[in-house]
Amino acid sequence: MEQLLHYCWKHKMWPATGLETTDGRRIEVIDPGLHNRNAGPDFFNAKVRIGGTLWVGNVELHDRASHWYQHGHDSDAAYDNVILHVVGEADRDVQTSKGDFVPQVCLTVPPAVSDNYEELLRTDSYPPCYRVIPNLPRLTVHAWMAALQTERLEQKTTAIEQRVRQCGGSWEDAYFMTLARNYGFGINGDAFEEWARHIPLSAVGKHRDNLFQIEAVFLGQAGLLAMEAVPERYQQQALTEGYFARLRNEYQYLAHKFSLQPMDYKRWRFLRLRPQNFPHIRLAQLANVYYERKAGLSQLIACKDMASLSELLRTQVTPYWQTHYTFGSESVRNAKHLSPGSISLLIINTCVPMLFAYGRHTMRDALCDRAFDILEQLKAEHNHIIRLWQECGLEVKTAGDSQALIQLKREYCDRKDCLRCRFGYEYLKHPQMPTPPTNPH
């Protein structure tokens, strides 16, 4: 498999007796080069001594030498500076577009590496490399976790920068959109982000001192003030109570004033959703946050510690929603504050990435450092991903740890991308792994 050839070349996994070209010249690999994931040769700027002569250039790898011609490299000038062709099987000589012959070497993947890799791909239990976890050096674990944590923040930074572009360069609006998305707590994240794009903050800001009007716009733009958005069995009760009708009338006035168009209410998901996560409640909470002027980027940046961040995100709902989860369906009175766990998730998924992204944008290292400090102060998240890693022997204490492991699962384990994972590397280089138990957990 060509991927394993790449892996072995990159990590210098070759026979103890050394390497020789197919015509018998001794090879000394000084530097395997920089792995190229784009078009062109597989490794750039390699340094290889062949038969006593030092060559500096590129390296190309194939399962079979004849793939050089199948891929058209013999007529592509981009491959004229290849100094070595690494193959699993040298079934023919190869030439560049200039007619020069390229030195070739057969690289055999060590059986232990091949067997371990096949097992990683076959294993359905997660994570597939669980057996090496307890024996990994602490430095290896710490370094990989730190890299994953940064990788996850950079990934979220890319998403935030995309929102900034969608908002015409406004970081304030992008922050509101990011906050809104995370009020969906996964299930309705996409719907909340779409909703935020339907909120003209410059227009709503003219009515910022009126919580009722803010709530009318927020619920109206969500499409939830349309009669068809209310389940038929609750429609009469919703009209009788009066609050629904008042909100709808107010929204119709504001929609006409600002030329507003609501989103499709069918975008909201309710199946298997706990009532406290219903979009009506989350939107009512967001309306309160906006009304109290706690939904701005400047307010976030002003928070210097966890206590001030928690206070910034603490919210409540208007009296109607204390006794309702949807229109027309009365419930036991509940203040419906955000739970401490929900606030922690908002800090992890909204405040931390925003501080990091804005710190990068403004070149304010203090904001980036604050983002990492917050992750180290918060306790680790509790979900099935974290529990599985803990059962494998990993110590997970902080939100930084849990964010790193979520990144590891989604970007490496789920994609079977073990060759780019440092835990996978430790697994592959192990000479012989014991037979796995029937149920590792």
The first-to-last residue Cα distance is 31 Å
Q: Count every helix, treating DSSP H or I runs of 4 or more residues as helices.
A: 19
Strand portion, in percent?
A: 5-15%
The computed structural class is alpha+beta
Unreliable stretches, pLDDT < 50, 5 or more residues? 434-441
Q: Could you spell the SSE succession in H and E letters?
A: HEEEEEHEEHHHHHHHHHHHHEEHHHHH
β-strand number: 9
Oligomer: single chain
How would you sum up the major sheet?
7 strands, mixed
CA-atom Rg in angstroms: 29 Å
Overall mean pLDDT: 91
In helices, the fraction of residues equals 40-55%
State the shape: elongated
Attribute tags:
two-stranded antiparallel ribbon, 9 strands, alpha+beta, 49% helix, seven-stranded mixed β-sheet, single chain, 441 residues
Description:
The structure is a single chain. This protein is an alpha+beta fold and 441 residues long. 49% of the residues lie in helices and 10% in strands. The radius of gyration is 29 Å and the shape is elongated.
Write the layout of secondary structure elements.
Elements: H1 2-10, E1 19-20, E2 26-31, E3 34-35, E4 43-50, E5 53-64, H2 67-70, E6 82-89, E7 104-106, H3 111-122, H4 138-166, H5 171-182, H6 189-197, H7 201-204, H8 211-221, H9 232-241, H10 243-258, H11 279-291, H12 297-302, H13 306-313, H14 319-322, E8 324-326, E9 329-330, H15 340-362, H16 365-377, H17 384-391, H18 399-413, H19 422-429
Parallel strand pairs: 5-6, 6-7
Antiparallel strand pairs: 1-2, 2-4, 3-4, 4-5, 8-9
Helix pairs in contact: 3-19, 4-5, 4-15, 4-18, 5-6, 5-15, 8-10, 8-11, 15-16
